[in-house]
Amino acid sequence: MSGWDIGSDLIHITLVYATALMFGALGGLWSERSGVVNIAIEGMMTIGAFTGAVVTYFAGSPWIGFIAAAVAGAIFALPHAVASVTYKADQTISGVALNFLAVGLGLYLTKLIFDGQGQSPNLASGGTSLMIAKVQIPFLSDIPFFGHAFFEAYPTTYIVLALMLVTWYILFKTPWGLRIRAVGEHPKAADTAGVNVYLVRYMAVLTSGAFAAMGGATLALTTTASFSHSTVAGQGYIALAALIFGKWHPIGAVAAAAFFGVVTAVKFLLPYIGLGHVPLDIISMLPYALTLIVLVSFIGRATAPLASGVPYEKGSR
């Protein structure tokens, strides 16, 4: 395999494995831009993976499963919104609790639905695959190097890139986006100007849950082909690191998620770049090690929204 082909494959595989992280990072962005810290991205992705796999299995359509996952993610985010916004609980503790709940609930329901089995049936087995298939964009996919790299991908990759642009436009070009950013920076000033701080934060957290759940569904419907307790495997936390690395900006967060995806892509190309002797266990732990490095290196340089993590009490000074 030539260096040209390796480079094309690297970009292609990076997009495959970074897509779920992009969804998770965008999900975290919506919540934290409104001032609500969302540590529960991991749990929301888990619920999305569970719902996507189970609904797809019974409905016979991965797109019905994908949409159902988004709805389930928004519903699962509701307790976090209630605890954080209405009852002003510690947002980090609420998020961590939801992460544990998601894994336990997903595993329990999986065993309940599938006669004690620890994972859902394989969606790629049998006569008809229920997986989301890759698409080739006519003409563009035939372009040397760039065709395979960018224009032969899962539809979810194009969806998340479109949502990135929509998120950017809403946050920075619309009155609704201005309200979200104002609530995340100066909720008292926003309240004085007539903005319903509670409503904005509720909507942002529910949107966060829907986006993150789509990331989990992407994992189940494109790469793992099923749901188990290890389907998400910490990728929600990596998505949060990408959000910080991207400085709470839609384009930056997606680019950072792609950066993390490169590490996963590399392990598939080791034999072709002369590093086939490197143990896969070492490569598999690199995304998590890289997460720690990014957090240590950038947490002090990236400035979160000023009111992030601070409950708002109407009428307070």
Structure report:
By secondary structure, this protein is mainly alpha-helical. The chain has a single domain (3-298), classed as Orthogonal Bundle (ABC transporter involved in vitamin B12 uptake, BtuC), CATH 1.10.3470. 68% of the residues lie in helices and 1% in strands. α6 packs across α7 (175-185) and α11 packs antiparallel against α12 (280-298). The N and C termini lie far apart (64 Å). It holds the Pfam family BPD_transp_2. It is a multi-pass membrane protein.
Output the keywords:
317 residues; mainly alpha; ABC transporter involved in vitamin B12 uptake, BtuC; two-stranded antiparallel sheet; 2 strands; transmembrane transporter activity; membrane; ABC_transp_permease; ABC transporter permease; transmembrane helix
Low-confidence stretches: none
**Which H/E pattern describes the elements?**
HHHHEHEHHHHHHH
- Compute the number of strand runs: 2
CATH class category name? Mainly Alpha
Strands across the major sheet, in which order?
1-2
Binned, the helix content reads 55-70%
Give me the Rg, rounded: 20 Å
Fraction in beta strands: under 5%
Instruction: Supply the CATH architecture.
Output: Orthogonal Bundle
State the helix count. Answer: 12
CATH topology: ABC transporter involved in vitamin B12 uptake, BtuC
State the domain count: 1
**CA-to-CA gap between the ends?**
64 Å
Largest sheet: 2 strands, antiparallel
Overall mean confidence score, pLDDT = 90
Helix and strand content put the structural class at: mainly alpha
Q: Which of globular, elongated, flat, extended, rod-shaped describes the shape?
A: globular
Main location: membrane
Keywords: Cell membrane, Membrane, Transmembrane, Transmembrane helix
Membrane topology: Multi-pass membrane protein
Protein name: ABC transporter permease
